[in-house]
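New to this. Please check this fold:
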Amino acid sequence: MSAIRHRILVVDDDVQIRRALRNAIAARGYDVTLAASGEEALDLAASEPPDMVILDMSLPGVDGIEVCRELRSWTRVPILILSVRDRSDDKVAALDIGADDYLTKPFDTAELLARIRSHLRRAGATQTGESVIEAGGLRIDLAHHQVFRGDEEIRLTRTEFALLAGLARNRGRVMTSGMLLAQVWGPEYQGDVQTLRVHIGNMRRKIEPDPQRPTLVLTEHGVGYRFNA
């Protein structure tokens, strides 16, 4: 059960999916508000501000992309997109306009609930201005640019630390390759995916228990990377 009664807005035009999501999420102690259309979602978000939004991409009238864009114009709450579309460009488009995460239907309920917990933790940490992140067995000191596993310091280059810090600050959230490249190297490097892959590979060799089977920095194929909290 959640110690704080977070309110989650679920937006989907399929009544059975809305009902299933409401039952699964409410059973974990969250308050759930339901919307069947983009227009209804925007009205509810304004009148009863949620702590997180779970948003179907294919909606009648105002679609999920437009709802996400409108929400991002005035709120920073986590937005998780649900969609039957599995193409990389659809995922990148949703993430680039401000969505925090993307799950393809059909999805595993346990994974959805884990991502909800992760995003709400991240949102709370952002509000309190955390300077040390402890996740995945690592302690990441953002102020001093240091990384530890237990008492052992892991030596990262400046670029590797910047990548890890960016991913860890957004743990649980998918970050596109373009986002990471712009954040670490600058907007002119947004297309240099190979450079990103090389540095991610080097970082994994230092922080992952088994770099061949990464469990901390996960690849979202065709999209980017996610720090697994």
Remarks:
- The chain has eight helices and twelve strands.
- The chain has a mean pLDDT of 88.
